Amino acid sequence: MRVRTPIALLALLPILAPAVRADDDEESLMAFRVAKVLTMDEKDTVINNAVVLVRGETIERVGRARDVEVPEGYRVIEKPELWLVPGLVDCHNHSAGSLYDLNDMVYLTNPGLRSLECLEPDSEENKVSVAGGVTTVLTIPGSGTNLSGFGTITKTTGDTVESMVEKYPGSLKIAQAGNPEWYWYGVRRSFMNFNTRQTLEKARRYHESWKKYEEAAARGEETEQPAFSPLFDDFRGLFERQFIVSVHTQMYQVLMTSVLMLARHFNLRVVLDHCTFDAWKVAPIVLQDPSIYTINGPRQYHFDRTQRKMMGNAARWWQGGVRKLGINTDAPVVPQESLSYQAAMACWYGWKPYEALRGVTRIPAEALMLDDRIGSIEAGKEAEFALWTGNPIDPRSSCELTVVRGKIAYDASEERRY
Amino acid sequence: MSARTMISALLALLLALAPSGAVRTDEPRRGRPNAEAPAEAKRADEEKSEEKEDEEKDHFLAITGGTVHTVTGPQLEGVTILCKNGRIHAIGREIEIPEKAERIDASGHHVYPGLIALSSSGLVGYGDPEVSTDVYDLELTLGLAGGLTTVVAGTTAAKLTHGTLDGLILRRNLLESISYSTRSPSSRARFREALDRVREHLRALERYDDEKKRDPEAKKPDEKWIRGPYSTAMRLLKKEAIGRATANDAGDITALARLAGHYGFRLVIQGATEGWTVPRELASAGVAAIITPRSRRDRDERLVRPNGSSIEMARILHEHGVPFGIVPPSSFISTWGLAGRDLLHLPMEAAHAIRGGLPEQAALEAITIQAARILGLDHRIGSIEEGKDADFAISDGPILSYLSHVRWTVVNGRVAYDKAKDSLFDHIRPGGDFDAPPPPDHWPRSLGEEW
Amino acid sequence: MIRSICTLLCCFVLATICHADERSADGRLTVIRAGRVITVSGETYTPGMVILEGSKIRLVGKNLEYPASARVIDAGGETVMPGLVLPRTRFQLDSYRRAGVHGAKSAADEIVPSEIEWEKLASAGFTTVAFVPAGTGIPGFASAFRPTRSDEERLRQENSYLRITMRNPVQDRNVLKGALEKAKKEIEKVKKAREEWEKKQKASEAKKEAEKKEPPKPTPPQPRPRPGEFEEDGPAAEPQPTPEKKPEAPKEPEKFTPPKIDPNVQPLVDRLEGKDVAIVFDVGGASDLRHLDATLELYPEVTGSYALSLGFYDDPRPLVELLGKRKALVMLTPSIDTLPYTVNLFNLPAQAARAGCRLVFVPGSDSERSFERLLAQVADVVRAGLDRDAALRAMTIHGAELLGLASRIGSLEKGKDADIVFVDGDPLSPGSSVTRVMIDGELVWRKKR
């Protein structure tokens, strides 16, 4: 993966001061009157000529303009020509944090490392991301080693780490084959798989010993408290399926290993990242575990040298029956603001536009286990959406306004950033 | 054997044995370093394809149906485009199509002039494309699948003539590369000095022409020194070539624009990331830009002036009347890379310009007629007009849409790419069907049908 | 150089004739009785007979009568067919490569007969073997040899075909173009010199006319051999003797001596002047062929056969189409490869034959093993769809044609050289192998039992 030098960014850090901070304690009330709302809800509802009411951080009501009366006190944002679409979600991002601290390739597996500790609030990258309609990302460590630490689900806005973070740990990052092979001469798939498995076994044992202790304590029994380990403590939620494992995996042979090891053997909630080259051929195996999400990208195509064909990865996954299918960017490999363009490319290579839009909104929200809060426009969910001049997948459309946690995080009429 | 024949024979032998670098040129290699014989040579080059055809061998291609985007004129429905021997012969509703004509029924499709890649590598051969192009090459085919018909490779404009070398070269020695950056003041000074000296020389030549009328013995100014940067300067000032410079800083862009304005040569700036901050300077000097609307350059907060990249670049240049062409971030086509960044997706780069506010028509022009104008080849390519080259990209939807695929690409009046007949993309939405079954996978491996 | 080659060739021709005479003087006929006789050019006789007279084939048929004195070789159920032609090899030659234009060189220059294991060539059934000069551009002529037992008889034809490569157009186009331009200039040069000479001649005639009536001097005998004495590659660049054109001036002792021509472009000069010089163009993919055509655009006289060596990414289909249209003689390896970027197999030989090409088979490499495998490889290609007759011709008569020797070898026909291969079964059936090889009616190799 390509790492953009962030020297300039680092140098600028102290200078970057307040930006979009609305320090009002009282709940803000906003009403968005738009041409169309793509709710991306379970019923795939599309509302034309709609109003979305936002109270504080939450969507209060969504409906047709003639059905929803805007109550007193609401700031009405009149955008009758724009589409309102859920904020785009990316399951594979590196650019919300410092790129320098992404790949600490100390050991072949590095349990205990946290991407949380290298987040960069209000960076130029994040500012452009939000201008591309991308609101929530999973920032994960790089794929230089098999197990490079824990990812953080974060907003692309916020001027402090606290205000950014949505969920930590967001995921455990595992990388299989490819990049980790650079680690050292002689490190190949057999050893890497053994080593990763061994690390996970250790973590599981750690979790089980604590679980036993805690259960005993709950029953009032007194047992010996296991020793605390900073290496393995973050893993505990993983084995309880409270957060996911995001796996850097490509090519069908490697992807099979990912599924067999992580989903079957360790019973983890697996989100397959990249899934490129000819990985779509594993679709029948992936389908056996309904909790697996396949998040495709950033390559989007594979030149099939067995039949001289340009295959669209996403299209082939879809044709293979996989429906929990999303798109990622691996930002900055593909710039974060280009997430919608990645989806467009998936379509150019044969996928379907609506599915592609779902693949950058609700699907990744589900994959990140955040679908109760984001990923669709429904009353009660977080007010996190963007206003577009048209279909967000179309590269001709532009994002005009982005709302995150009920606040306007980007307004193109003030300064267009993308 | 006379000494002269011996020398010429030796020269011929030397030429024959010369390594690959010594590519064939239209001009003699020695003796006249600056003696471009442009008019004749170019014409000869350009007319070559036509000369070859005699009356009986006339080749016709008729494109019927389809929405015709002429680019320079109105959008036409229900017309026939009749091409004869590589040129557009007639456009109209009641055109008699010769019996032997090849036909494309473009109903339900959109007909555009062939797209132009203002910089490319790998689609045609390196050096002199005429001798180095593999006309059956995969990348060349991919270029055609992207709707490209003309590419600039090095300083040559070449057509993607799949399967034939006829009409491959559109024009040689189009461009002269200039390096004129604030980072190297000395080279800037040297280049200005070259321009001054050559301009002085051109004036001396004019004086000489006058003088010759009075005094036939008049001595012609020495031209031996015109080499290297002087040769570049000479070609620029005589308007035999277009200057091409890569510059992204507003400072460099402005300096280049002033230089071109001051000396009066044609210039195109490639990159021009901060061009949107100095559109007036570009416009007043008549300088063109080759831009990548999506390119990112973060704003330097220490600077007061507007800086960095802007998605609105294309719109701003357009509004100020700066001619510009659009190129994607990568100038080649890859079978390994990231989707949507290379020349296979040139229209998508234009779509990004629309995102930044550029009108659709202007975006289309930027990859067709404006690109042709920048190259000074708009009499041949870039729009659908009678007499122009029969180069078309015929797509199954508006070409600037992310869902459109090129169905046929026509180069010099011949079908160079047919999506349905080429394995590369024939499985993607054949006939516009979103639910078409996938191609069979060779997993487990099996032998193909073709035996 | 050329002179010496000619002398050599002359000796060789004489030598063969003498040998043949000796044997026929012996008066013995040899009769081969076989389970099957494949003539390649005509019928296949099952069973069949071949009657040899000395080194030549006298009769081929089914139940032929022959005198009791004839020597009989009973091949039992074996198949007899013409000796195989190996149209291109560098077997046991070093890796010396040339670049540039070397029309005066031939592979024979490189060959030290004692250093080549001729038996290995014979054992694979090859009775004619064309060694080629390696390199790019115009590396020189291929030379045809026969793997006979005795050294003197081996060289059959020094200048078989001129090899011209178009594998890397960036270099090869320039080399070929330069060579052709040079050749054209040389022709011009000779023409100009002749015109000048004629002018001078006329002037002197006029002078003589004026001087009048001198006793005629006898014309000194011409030191040069008559053109008929040589084969086509005699002293090249030989202009038509001019004195004949002017019978009115027989006394003229002065003879036109053409200016010297660069021997390296001599074959091209000959070709441009309409003489018969065989050329084989080495091309990779179809694009190379396009580049070759573009280079030869102004020289329609320069045509030839093609040797294909497709690159990994070269699509054979357009090449097949282009070559088929011109009914070309095409040298290629009998193998089935995948189409570029696919696992789909493509039977290039079958498709090329179907398109109209005449095939000449060449083994995949210059190894003994590869030679031995040739028959089996061809059998594979035939099983996969290549016409059987086309396959047999591709190993024999077409190869002979490529070398310009079709009148002498390549099929079992009356009057042709008795170059015969014995196979213990059908030559195109796996498991069959060569048992005996005969060159000029003499057994040169026999399989050890």
Number of helices of chain A: 11
Low-confidence stretches of chain B: 5-53, 444-451
Round the mean pLDDT of chain A to the nearest integer and report it. Answer: 91
Which oligomeric state applies?
heterotrimer
Can you tag this structure with a few keywords?
heterotrimer, A: 418 residues, alpha/beta, 11 helices, disordered N terminus, B: 451 residues, six-stranded mixed beta sheet, 19 strands, 19% strand
Topology (SSEs and partners):
The complex is a heterotrimer of chains A (418), B (451) and C (449).
Chain A: H1 7-12, E1 29-38, E2 46-55, E3 58-64, E4 75-86, E5 88-93, H2 124-131, E6 134-139, E7 147-155, H3 161-164, E8 165-175, H4 189-218, H5 236-239, E9 244-249, H6 252-265, E10 270-274, H7 283-286, E11 293-296, E12 301-304, E13 309-312, H8 313-319, E14 325-327, H9 339-348, H10 353-358, H11 362-367, E15 385-388, E16 399-404, E17 407-411
Parallel strand pairs in A: 1-4, 5-6, 8-9, 9-10, 10-11, 11-14
Antiparallel strand pairs in A: 1-2, 2-3, 4-15, 6-7, 7-8, 12-13, 15-16, 16-17
Chain B: H1 3-17, H2 38-52, E1 60-64, E2 67-69, E3 75-77, E4 80-84, E5 87-92, E6 102-105, E7 110-113, E8 115-120, H3 129-132, H4 138-145, E9 148-153, E10 156-159, E11 169-171, E12 175-178, H5 185-214, H6 228-237, E13 242-247, H7 250-263, E14 267-271, H8 279-285, E15 288-291, H9 313-319, E16 324-326, H10 346-355, H11 360-366, H12 369-374, E17 392-395, E18 406-411, E19 414-418
Parallel strand pairs in B: 1-6, 2-7, 8-9, 12-13, 13-14, 14-15, 15-16
Antiparallel strand pairs in B: 1-4, 2-3, 4-5, 7-17, 9-10, 10-11, 17-18, 18-19
Helix pairs in contact in B: 5-6, 7-8, 10-11
Chain C: H1 2-26, E1 29-34, E2 36-38, E3 44-45, E4 48-53, E5 56-61, E6 71-74, E7 79-82, E8 84-89, H2 118-123, E9 126-131, E10 140-145, E11 155-166, H3 169-211, H4 266-272, E12 279-283, H5 286-295, E13 305-308, H6 316-325, E14 329-332, E15 337-338, E16 345-346, H7 348-355, E17 358-361, H8 368-383, H9 388-395, H10 397-402, E18 420-423, E19 434-439, E20 442-446
Parallel strand pairs in C: 1-6, 2-7, 8-9, 11-12, 12-13, 13-14, 14-17
Antiparallel strand pairs in C: 1-4, 2-3, 4-5, 7-18, 9-10, 10-11, 15-16, 18-19, 19-20
Helix pairs in contact in C: 3-4, 3-5, 6-7
